[in-house]
TrEMBL record:
Gene3D superfamilies: Periplasmic binding protein-like II, Winged helix-like DNA-binding domain superfamily/Winged helix DNA-binding domain. Signal peptide: none annotated. Belongs to the LysR transcriptional regulatory family. PROSITE patterns: HTH_LYSR. This is LysR family transcriptional regulator. Keywords: DNA-binding, Transcription, Transcription regulation. InterPro entries: LysR_HTH_N, LysR_subst-bd, WH-like_DNA-bd_sf, WH_DNA-bd_sf.
């Protein structure tokens, strides 16, 4: 493990403000988040970086060295960002991903580079470390992305999840099923860094459903579904595929949240974030929710709000 940009930002915020509370306010995060990041930084650095006392926190000799290097690194990073000609956005797989590509330049009024979040990095770390100016990412109840210093979130959509099964299989014509109907069947998840597998296992275990969850390549997932080998959780606006039936789940036991993450001290201004979020919300309602099965489900569940208030 190495010192990361988010560790360095916490160190400098503590040097500048002298207290955990002040550092949290400067970075726009909670005090526990600052404390946890500082503990991780001290483990990596190999010793205490600050002395805590009644009058706040003061850097140790090791802390002074780390702070000096941190200021140089972060200044260089800011210069590098300023030199870039495009805003860099990233996203995890979702039904809003293609809309982000289309809408980002229109909303932000600048050249935008949109790319898939790499498997080697957690989405919010891309923002915290300055590798992306914003990230559109999904997560799940009990498996949310952590609060990191300087990173803000706004929710774009909160949706049910459906399941994909073989259309010619025993469940293909059911329309809606209970989780219990899927007991003993292998489930599949694709290897996205959105904590989907752990969330699915929690839900199945909580419902008393014994099932194996396999991680499979995205290209192979629907092929295995069509062969009747696995059931696959899918976002409700996913496009239909030949030989595959999408079923709704009674009681809506699975749900997914899509959020836009950005750095409070980055190039995106609050007005930029609001414009981008509003366009993504419009795409959610006007495009994603037009999928026939999803539209029918929403009509039957008028209590469901897919877009929370800002």
């Amino acid at each position: 493990m190495e010192l990361e940009f988010r560790h360095l930002r916490v160190v400098l915020a503590l040097v500048d403000t002298g207290t955990l509370t002040g550092a949290a306010a400067q970075l726009g995060v909670t005090q526990p988040a600052v404390s946890e990041t500082l503990r991780r930084a001290e483990r990596v650095a190999g010793g205490a970086l600050f002395r805590r006392g009644a009058h706040g926190a003061s850097p140790t000799p090791l802390g002074e060295v780390v702070a000096a290097h941190a200021r140089g690194v972060l200044d260089s990073l800011a210069q590098l960002k300023a030199a870039g000609s495009a805003l860099h956005l990233s996203c995890t797989p979702s039904t809003l991903q293609p809309h982000l590509v289309v809408l980002a330049e229109e909303a932000l009024g600048a050249a935008v580079d949109v790319h898939a979040a790499p498997e080697s990095a957690a989405p919010v770390d891309l923002v915290a470390d300055g590798r992306a100016h914003a990230v559109l990412a999904t997560d799940f109840r009990g498996h949310e992305h952590p609060d990191l210093p300087g990173v803000r979130r706004t929710v774009v959509a909160h949706e049910p999840m459906f399941v994909a099964v073989a259309a010619d299989g025993p469940l293909g014509g059911r329309g809606e099923v209970d989780l219990a109907d899927l007991a003993g069947i292998d489930w599949a998840v694709t290897p996205a860094r959105d904590r989907r597998r752990a969330y699915l296992l929690d839900v199945l275990t909580g419902a008393g459903v014994r099932a194996r969850v396999r991680t499979v390549d995205f290209a192979a997932a629907f092929g295995l579904v069509g062969m009747g080998r696995v059931v696959l959780p899918v976002m409700p606006g996913a496009r239909s595929r030949e030989g595959i039936a999408f079923l709704t789940l009674a009681g809506t036991p699975l749900a997914v949240r899509t959020s836009l993450f950005w750095r409070a001290d980055g190039p995106l201004r609050p007005a930029d974030v609001i414009r981008l979020r509003d366009r993504l919300v419009a795409a959610q309602h006007e495009r994603v929710e037009r999928a026939p099965l999803y539209r029918k489900w929403l009509e039957a569940h008028p209590e469901w709000r897919t877009t929370p208030s800002r």
